[in-house]
């Protein structure tokens, strides 16, 4: 087996090639505000993603498919509302996708821009990505670990349901933070 890492400009990074995200060790999450005060967190457990890490890091691509019905915010009533036509409308739009279009790297950090498609609406999203390191699991699989963050305005994807509060504020924030923590397994 060849090395799972390499040194690029003095920084240890994953080897070029295909890396598949392990859905059992992937946190594809979001954070919004309730009453514009309390943080509400959720995640999608159905994630299928592949990283094609380029010889030049700038040639790296990511393709992900998210099963929107797997949304889990820790509250069944809220999850059903998120699956409804008010938000994700999973009956008509069961999947969201992300496809990267550019990567700019500096050491173990990168900025990735990609197209996020939800409910057949696509918009560019910028993610701050950090490579956290490599580990070999007990079964001999090489894993690369990444963290990424970004912010979106959910209304750009037609996720506009809201309620005006007596105080004049909104029940649900428009700005949503995207939070990703993933392990990717090197394909052999």
TrEMBL record:
Stretches assigned to the Lipid/polyisoprenoid-binding YceI-like domain: 18-185
InterPro entries assigned: Lipid/polyisoprenoid-bd_YceI, TTHA0802/YceI-like_sf
Sequence similarity: Belongs to the UPF0312 family.
Top-level taxonomic group: Bacteria
Protein name (record): YceI family protein
SUPFAM superfamilies: YceI-like
TM helices/strands, residue ranges: none
SMART domains for this protein: YceI
